[in-house]
Write a structure and sequence with these properties.
InterPro entries: ATP-grasp (IPR011761), ATP-grasp_carboxylate-amine (IPR003135), ATP_grasp_subdomain_1 (IPR013815), PreATP-grasp_dom_sf (IPR016185), PurK (IPR005875), PurK_C (IPR040686), PurT/PurK_preATP-grasp (IPR054350), Rudment_hybrid_motif (IPR011054). The chain has 350 residues and is of the alpha+beta class. 29% of the residues lie in helices and 29% in strands. The structure holds adenosine-5'-triphosphate and magnesium ion (2 copies).
Length: 350
């Protein structure tokens, strides 16, 4: 059987390793941090930094294909790995999604709509950008942002000074504030031979920039459901993508606007674990290992809730509840804002 290398040992890597194990595949996890959640589920673990060339080479030589659970792997590490073994999804998807500005240019180039945006490097740049996007707006770091970190909301131009100070000199992008009626996401898959399958779009609720809840089915007219799936397919084909891609969308009266894409399994796709015969993790492993895609039809209505920080206090109650599927990540330390697990509330269809 083949061995899958996974860059990153967080909860996404852990759930990928579980899915791979079910298919009889082995996983080798590469993670610089200590006590990674994926370690228990992996057949091999390398704890080394992304600058450790010897460790990267040994890792790449021990696997048949490399995938990743987060998009910020340094390019130098990827160059080295790619000289020894294929990386799926490919480098182009990573290059584009590592930088919000590049990503928006790419999406716009495909004819998809994004919020009005402009690059910002300093105060003068921000003032010019605000003229372009209007206020309110959101200033985001181009790289390394997640869970709403590295973002500042700007109500009007008087807040520009403070916003630049808050960003601490990081190259940024300013986005006009989108007045959306809902947020949805499409978890889309493409196999090595180019077949595409999308999970049913989920409706997402965030607070403080962190995903709290995903509900399927989304409250969405059929025409927008079709738009969402078609635009995801367009992105997959343009990138000759192999694996799962998460596409976050704003629903507006004028149609769908792309917020961002993630070249990996996605938090808003966790409902698939209890709503589909083949979930997003298995679908990703299948694609990456060169298998055909599986059956991702939805067989239940699902509400997924993230368990963040103190939400772990709910676990004893949830463990006793009917139709509640718990997924805990085995993290030793509970911290504010840290994703500790999730629960899927499941209502089987008819
Ligand atoms: P993650 O990668 O964890 O999804 P992130 O740090 O990349 O998060 P974004 O997805 O850019 O953050 O933003 C987080 C949330 O903030 C969005 O889901 C949305 O609720 C809100 N938001 C972001 N950009 C805009 C915008 N231009 N207009 C309105 N709301 C926005
Ligand atoms: Mg993001
Ligand atoms: Mg997001």
């Amino acid at each position: 059987g083949s061995v899958i290398g996974i860059l990153g040992g967080g909860q996404l890597g852990r759930m990928l390793a579980v899915a791979a194990g079910r298919l009889g595949l082995r996983c080798h996890v590469y993670e610089p941090g200590s006590n990674p959640p994926a370690a228990d589920m992996a057949h091999a673990l390398t704890t080394a930094g992304y600058e450790d060339e010897a460790a990267l080479c040994a890792f790449a030589r021990s696997v048949d294909v490399v995938t990743y659970e987060f998009e910020n792997v340094p390019a130098s590490a990827l160059d080295l790995i790619e000289s020894l073994v294929p990386i799926r999804p490919g480098r182009e998807a990573l290059r584009i999604s590592q930088d919000r500005m590049t990503e928006k240019d790419f999406l716009t180039g495909l004819g998809l709509r994004v919020a009005p945006y402009a690059a910002v490097d300093d105060l003068a740049g921000l003032e010019a950008a605000l003229n372009q996007t209007g206020a309110p707006a959101i200033l985001k770091t181009r790289r390394f942002g997640y869970d709403g970190k590295g973002q500042v909301r700007i109500k009007d131009i008087a807040e520009a000074d403070q916003a630049i100070a808050d960003m601490g000199g990081s190259p940024s992008v300013l986005e006009g504030f989108v007045d959306f009626s809902a947020e949805i996401s499409v978890i889309a898959a493409r196999s090595a031979d180019g077949a595409v399958a999308c999970f049913d779009p989920g409706q997402n609720e965030h607070s403080d920039g962190i995903l709290r809840r995903t509900t399927v089915p989304a409250a969405l007219p059929a025409s927008l459901r079709t738009d969402a799936v078609l635009l995801a397919g367009r992105i997959l084909n343009a990138l000759e993508y192999v694996g799962i891609l998460g596409v976050e969308l704003f629903v507006t009266p004028a149609g769908l606007i792309v917020n961002e894409i993630a070249p990996r399994v996605h938090n808003s796709g966790h409902w698939t674990q209890n709503g589909c015969v083949v979930d997003q993790f298995e679908q990703h492993v299948r694609a990456v290992a060169g298998w055909p895609l599986g059956d991702g039809q939805r067989h239940a209505d699902v509400v997924m809730e993230n368990l963040i920080g103190d939400d772990m206090d709910r676990v004893p109650e949830l463990a006793a509840q009917a139709n509640a599927a718990l997924h805990l990540y085995g993290k030793a330390e509970t911290r504010d804002g840290r994703k500790m697990g999730h629960v899927n509330f499941v209502t089987p269809l008819g």
